[in-house]
Every structure is written in structure tokens, then in C-alpha cells.
Amino acid sequence: MKYDLETLARIPIKDVLEALGAVPARNGRNFHCFNVALHKDNDRNASMAVYERTNSCSCFACGISGTPINITKAFFNGDFKQAAEFLHSHFNIPTLDNNIVKQVKVAFTPKITKEKVYMIFDENKEYADIKVLDAYLSLYPRMSEAQKLKLIYTSLYRFSLKTNQKPKESYYLKRGITKLHLVDKIGFLSYNDVKTLEKYLLERFPLEDLIRFKLFSKIRNTFNYAFNIAVVPNFDLYSNMVAGFSFRSIDSSYKGAKEVNISCSDIVYPMPFGLENESLRMSKWIWICEGHIDLLSLRQYYENSDDVCFIAFNGVFAYKEEFLTLLKGKSRIVISFDKDEAGINGEKALREHLNLLRIPNLTARWDCVDGIDLNDLLCAKKLNTLTFDEAT
Ligand SMILES: [Zn+2]
Fold first, then answer.
1. DSSP letters along 315-355, please?
2. CA of 5 to the centre of ligand 1 (A)
């Protein structure tokens, strides 16, 4: 068999590394080296640098390096024949003598799985009340990823609070939320607001960060979402900064997704809407809703609800298991997802998680004839019919 070494050498090194099971690093430039056994403490995150000019790579931890053929040979413990045949077959490159190369199997190293870090509420941790965001702009280049993200997100959020809020208020009024102070923490962006916001953000932050933190489109370099949106914040647990949002389209003619969640939860985990330092600290119960309008409906109905912290997951699976331990120590957790298939499945999964974590929980029940969600019940004046039971 005559291997086509010239063609093999021209396979982009990134593609070769990926074929060998190396995982791209978060920055998109490097990879994590697959040669885990030779790294100190079996480090799965060791950095493998990629040099596009020479189509080669090099690991800082174990020192293996080279071109597509060399690195593949290293992967197959120095077996050149296996390496060449793997590249031929994987990339579907004919040999010089047109031999069919049999499939060479690669034993992949297991995917990197991060260890779960369960969240614990530290009541003694100092709460930071950040007032003037622009005062921090000069520090931006030296900030951590999490600090950058929160500064950008909070800038957008606070901008959305200063726009004309009338369309937002009339939207929530139509949904039966008549106590408008309940929507004070929700912002609003019209078409013109979005245009002004784009300039506002670009004057303050690098475009690449606005793209990386999912606010701007990589292709158009403009705001990546619809306009006429309510901006529903997810706060940081230990400050008044924002770590995520959901954008709710309040335009009934809009054809796209009604609601999108925006966050980079590998950088900062966004707390559900409604969960803030004080509400978590003061409450005895936690009441979990599927969407923020259900949450507002409950707050509209229950006058004195200081003992209860209402939170909205924005989707029945939009939480990490590690988040749930934050709710430990509360006397009750109530779940009130929609009574549709997704809601019922989500409720079942959530209750299983809570039970495993030994967190006491209840389900809110009602007659589905009156509606599938809590906002339906509010509008039908049936929130007084809710019952709670522990049996599933
Ligand atoms: Zn290595």
C-alpha cells in the first residue's frame, strides 16, 4: 500500500486533533491534549497549541508535537502504519495505488466531564451593591471573564430600564398583572432602543466580547435578538449585577421564538428570575414556576408573600442539578409547572432530583379545565383553587 503522505500532511491539524478525540479549548484556538496519561495528575485540560502556519501542534504538558502524521503516530504509540491508515480512512483519502483502507478504530479518551460543584448559599458573604457601572469601565481589560460578562449584561439591563416602559406595562396589564410595581425590575427594548443600545454597548465594550457573550450576531455584528422585548433579568446571587436574561417578545405579530434565555452558564450561572440574595435569605418557602409570567401571576394574587420566594426557571429543564442545593434548608419547595406534557415530565424529573438531595417538595395542583398554567388561572380568577400534594 502506497500512502499519500503529501495529502495526509495537508489535512488541517485541527481536524486531525478532533478526529483523535482532542477536545477544543474554550478559546477556540487551542485543544486539550489527548495524551492524558502522560500529564501530571492525568490532567485532561492540558493545552495543545495549534500552529496553522506550519500545520502542526504541540502540547505544553507532555511535549508531544508535530504534523498530522507525526501526531497521529504518537497517538497510535509510534505505529506509523496504523497512523497513516487511520488518516486515509477517516478523511477518505485514496492511497496512491488506490487501495481501499480498512476502517481504523480509535479508542477515544472519555469526554471531559466536569465534576459537579453543588451550590451552597453563603449568608455571610458580603453583598456588593454596584451603583455606577461606567465607573468600572477603565478596569475592564483586567477583569475576569465573569466580571466582564456581568458588566456587559448589567449595562444592557440597566439601559433597558430607562427606556419608555409603556408598551411593556400594557403587555403585562393584558396578561392580568395589574400591580405594575411587580414588573419594575423587567426592562423593555423597542426597535429604536435596540439601535441606541447597540451604539451604547459598542462605545463601551469590544465587539468580540459582545459576540462571545451572545448578545451580538457574529455575522451582522448587531444585536442578535428581536426588538419589542421585555428584558427579564437573572441576578447574580451576591450582587445587584445581572448574569443572564430572558428576552420575551411582547409583539403579537412576531413570528420567532416567544422567549429566549441568554447566559453563559459556564462562566456565571444565572439565578432564576425572582431569586436574589435577600429573597433567598428571608424566605421560608421556595415556589418554582415554569415562566416569569406565572411568577408574576402568583405575586399578583398573594398579597403578603414575604415567607415565599417565587422563582421562575424559564423552561422546565433550564436548571443545573447543582443549583438545587441552594434551596436546602427551606421548609418547602413548591413546583407549579404547566400542566402539559413538557411541564409534567419536567416536574417528575425535578422532584426526583429534589428527593435525591433530600429537599422536601410539593406539587401545586388545579383543575386543568381552568387552564394549563398559573397565568391562565389568574385570568380565570381560579388561583384560589390551588391545592398542594406530595404524592406523584
Ligand atoms: Zn499532552
1. STT-S-HHHHGGGTT-SEEEEE--SSHHHHHHHHHHHHHHH
2. 24
Cα(41) to centroid(ligand 1), Å:
12
Q: Give the model's pLDDT for residue 110.
A: 45
* 304 and 185 within one domain: no
Integer Cα distance of 156 and 164 in angstroms: 15
H-helix or E-strand spanning residue 65: strand 65-66
CA 105 – ligand 1 centroid, Å:
21
Per-residue pLDDT at 111 = 42
Assess whether 287 and 243 both reside in one domain.
Answer: no
Q: 22 CA to middle of ligand 1, Å?
A: 10
Q: Give the Å distance between the CA of 57 and the centre of ligand 1.
A: 10
How far apart are the CA of 4 and the centre of ligand 1, in A? Answer: 27
Average pLDDT, 10 consecutive residues per value, the chain (392 residues): 90 90 79 82 84 88 88 88 89 81 59 67 93 96 96 98 98 96 97 98 97 94 94 96 96 85 91 95 94 96 86 88 91 94 90 90 94 96 90 50
Asked if residue 200 and residue 141 are part of one domain, the reply reads yes
Judge whether 107 lies within some domain: no
Task: Count up the domains in the chain and report the number.
Answer: 3
pLDDT of residue 112: 43
